Amino acid sequence: xxxxxxxxxxxxxxxxxxxxxxxxxxxxxxxxxxxxxxxxxxxxxxxxxxxxxxxxxxxxxxxxxxxxxxxxxxxxxxxxxxxxxxxxxxxxxxxxxxxxxxxxxxxxxxxxxxxxxxxxxxxxxxxxxxxxxxxxxxxxxxxxxxxxxxxxxxxxxxxxxxxxxxxxxxxxxxxxxxxxxxxxxxxxxxxxxxxxxxxxxxxxxxxxxxxxxxxxxxxxxxxxxxxxxxxxxxxxxxxxxxxxxxxxxxxxxxxxxxxxxxxxxxxxxxxxxxxxxxxxxxxxxxxxxxxxxxxxxxxxxxxxxxxxxxxxxxxxxxxxxxxxxxxxxxxxxxxxxxxxxxxxxxxxxxxxxxxxxxxxxxxxxxxxxxxxxxxxxxxxxxxxxxxxxxxxxxxxxxxxxxxxxxxxxxxxxxxxxxxxxxxxxxxxxxxxxxxxxxxxxxxxxxxxxxxxxxxxxxxxxxxxxxxxxxxxxxxxxxxxxxxxxxxxxxxxxxxxxxxxxxxxxxxxxxxxxxxxxxxxxxxxxxxxxxxxxxxxxxxxxxxxxxxxxxxxxxxxxxxxxxxxxxxxxxxxxxxxxxxxxxxxxxxxxxxxxxxxxxxxxxxxxxxxxxxxxxxxxxx
Length: 619
Description:
- By secondary structure, the protein is mostly beta strands.
- The chain has six helices and 52 strands.
- α1 crosses α3.
- The chain is globular, with a radius of gyration of 27 Å.
């Protein structure tokens, strides 16, 4: 078993930690560990690695004096896989020296993941954004430095072991650090910033060695107990949740905004060979789909309950989760589920009558190839219609199903047609022709036509503009807003009411996380810039909040990202149009607008001569 060290960081979602045998990637939901960069335990190199930090998706390490002929200093770690490299490759094969005027000894990353702050041997304090080196921003005035942490506007400096005062704080607008006498002595392990002014660190005194403590905004101290009884070893934060590793390698999470003194042990999904679809669906409420798949494979779980649970979860929550199968051993999986077992699924999809008495064949494409079930049962295609793709049908040459901006188009030698609920499509091969009816586009377990998820903000969300922040609901088409690279003109504005529920209730970005200047409510599928990549809010470990009936807004900027409450987020994708039947149009109007075709609806929709309706679809 590896022995972990105090050196630890996060990439905004998951954890990276140093052990005696290398650097580990740790799943922030399950605590599962993967050795990513190998360091031979007999080399002694791990003991000389002083710090880990991630900016702009790149991992950096500081290596101190060593006997491995490695120059002390800052190194950029290459991303895997590279040619000839794989997970578990030797660390020394994956590092690139970063030339600096003074040797750094400790560092931390800014909350938005764009800047490294580091301290040199001489006590100098510098900033590095991955491009510009040696930006001198003052001095620590602390002698040796054991650890750093950054909040939105303050750098917290933890002096070395034995320093009389345990903390220094330095506002970025001032060159003079402030001493905070906390009354205890820090051993020299790492410190991290939670939320609401909370700071977490590991301390030592005569009665409790290696204890985990939290400072509140007034620097009062609370001690946090770890349930497994082991001593705390390392602590790091993604700006919201705080993660702790103990000496036995157990991993804990702390919801710093909700329960700042409670550490919860992380464990993988508890699935067995006889787990039911209900067991799996319950686990899906707490774990990522990929975590469920890994646990199912490990438990030799039959395919049927797994696919049914994913289908039920997708239909109930309006989410597309089958894309998690891509690249796994379950690509190409199929299962036939009885009508009785699928009753809840049919109910969620509003399927009744004779169709609801049939068994269902759930099919996961393999390398873009779809396998269909018999025409005597229903076939569910486990695809994600939020991802543009083209699928072929096994056994039916020249027949395809394409997804573009959420619109599903079937193409055969006879021509193409956009699919909608109630439409049919026919496949033909040497054995004959087979016609399938589309009972629900949600049977693809994407959003389909009827359940497009909100990708938006509430009306009071502050949008950055050249003249300052303005409420989103006060903006209009033609106004100019700020972007990460300049400005952009609003091309269109989306505003729509949504019922409260898991697929619509907003997630909460706390003040300070991802650069947020205030608490920000964001819809589940909206993407946030995290360390140079765009990640959906629902995948960031945030808390969801039920605020009742929702009125969501979003801005169309021709693909440019925008800045809301200091957070870089995606703007509205271009509106596309889809064709639905007049009956389906009437059902939507009845459900969402009380049966009244408002002037806004009439202006947005086009009533075609064949009785269908062209409606805008938000993606």
